[in-house]
Amino acid sequence: MGMMFPRESKCIIECLLFVSKEPLTLKTLSQIMELPEQDIKILLEELVTEYNTGGRGINIQLVANGYQMYTRPEYASYIEKLYKPQSSYGLSKAALETLAIIAYKQPITRAEIEAIRGVKVDSSLGTLIEKNLVKEVGRKEGPGRPMLFGTTPGFLRYFGLKDLSELPDPEEFVHSHGSSDETASGSEEPCIAPESGSPAGFSMQNEQGEG
Question: Which of 17, 62, 78, 167 is deepest in the core (most CB within 10 A)?
Fold first, then answer.
């Protein structure tokens, strides 16, 4: 394909980001548009600047080694009103605490998680696996060779993180994504709506049932 005008190329990238359920990497965009990755990167940087300085309600974030559209955190309250009936995206406090342990201690076994939390984590762990936030990553050497668990790329997308180095302090992680009226951390609490104000806001494709 011949070289397109920069404006047209940026429009195509914008369309692809809008319809994609997953973050798009430079390699994927390069293959689709038949342009060098360096050209794609330049166009993306221009798009990111336009979205971040143009007073829009949407921005483009680098998440899980790819680019994706997100709503701005400052408009989270309006999005929460729209999606309040659909709280299936949310996580209980018990699940959040289990997820935090896995995120910071991975790879980690079920028994090690339970030793830290002081309660059984079968339900929480099952929920996290079902939502594609956690997966089995291998087996630990030793008696019984217990299964090891770690986070998935879906975890990075869910919380708007570029990579694990962007994880906040563990207590801040649970506090910022949990509900202040939740108690009894060892119990399974009712699901809460996710914060559109995760670090990068709410993914444009979350409403289509991701994770």
Answer: 17
